[in-house]
Write a structure and sequence with these properties.
By secondary structure, this protein is an all-alpha fold. Helices cover about 80% and strands about 0% of the residues. It contains five helices and no strands. The radius of gyration is 16 Å and the shape is elongated. The N and C termini lie close together (about 5 Å). The relative contact order is 0.19.
Length: about 140
């Protein structure tokens, strides 16, 4: 359920309505960002020369997740609530999954590092999908 639908037929108006729209659209954009990161990491498994690109892209994805979190926290502060309480867990988990991936992969062989990044992007993607379902 989308954040807009969870808030009722009319939904919030004014600044809160804009924030709901931004948060929802950022959520869909994050699906694309995280899916692209997964593809990049899988490509790096075959060609480890792509690893520097994957590392940089991972931190851009983290920045996008932080922006999404800021929008979500702003909604909470404005008094808005997600459709399901579990929504509040999925965002932070998605955010920490990528930096944890970097910590796990540190010092590993390049191909194994690429597999670890792919797993991290997959976990973050699945959590983002679940967040959209519970919003």
């Amino acid at each position: 359920m989308s954040a807009g639908l969870a808030l009722g037929a009319a939904g919030p108006s004014g600044a809160a309505g804009v924030l709901v729209t931004v948060h929802e659209r950022l959520g869909y954009a994050l699906l694309i960002v995280l899916a692209a990161g997964l593809v990049l990491a899988l490509l790096a498994v075959r060609d480890v020369r792509r690893l520097p690109t994957v590392r940089a892209y991972l931190w851009l994805a983290v920045a996008a997740l932080v922006l999404q979190g800021i929008a979500g926290i702003s909604l909470l502060l404005a008094g808005e609530r997600p459709g399901e309480g579990l929504h509040l867990m999925y965002g932070p988990l998605a955010l920490v999954s990528l930096p944890l991936t970097v910590l796990f992969a540190r010092g590993w062989a390049p191909r194994r590092e690429a597999w670890t990044f792919a797993a991290g992007f997959l976990v973050a993607l699945l959590l983002a999908i679940r967040a959209l379902m519970t919003g």
